[in-house]
Amino acid sequence: MLNTDDRFLRLKAVIEKTGCPKASIYRMIKEGTFPKQERIGRRAVGWRASQIARWMEAPSSYREA
Fold first, then answer.
1. Is 53 within 8 Å of 62 (Cβ atoms)?
2. Which residues contact 11 (CB under 8 A, 6 or more apart)?
3. Higher pLDDT residue, 40 or 5?
4. What total of structural domains would you count in the chain?
5. How big is the chain by its Cα radius of gyration, in Å?
6. Taking CA atoms, which of 8, 9, 12, 18 is between 20 and 30 Å from 41?
7. What pLDDT shows up at residue 64?
8. What pLDDT does 2 receive?
9. How many CB atoms lie within 10 A of CB 43?
10. For residue range 7-57, what is the model confidence (pLDDT) as tens digits?
11. Which domain holds residue 50?
């Protein structure tokens, strides 16, 4: 059974959930301080809800592994 926290969020949902603008999200990904998106289709990417939740718990101390 799939955990509901492992569902994928699209960019619009990530922006709404985090309150971060698109440019800031991509800048933080580049810096390694925000979860990287995953390819979920040929032309689609998404973020795991569990990773976004982990980032939201402690954004200043998050580091991409």
1. no
2. 22, 25, 37, 45
3. 40
4. 1
5. 11
6. 18
7. 78
8. 52
9. 6
10. 999 999 999 999 999 999 999 999 999 999 999 999 999 999 999 999 999
11. 4-61
pLDDT of residue 53: 96
Q: Which two tokens stand for residue 25?
A: 């999200």
What six digits make up the tokens of 57? Answer: 């718990």
Determine whether 55 is exposed, middle or buried from the number of CB atoms within 10 Å of its CB (0-12, 13-18, 19+).
Answer: buried
Q: What is the pTM of this model?
A: 0.85
Closest CA to 46 of 34, 56, 55, 37: 37
CA 43 distance to own-chain centroid = 17
Class of residue 4 by CB neighbours under 10 A (exposed 0-12, middle 13-18, buried 19+) = exposed
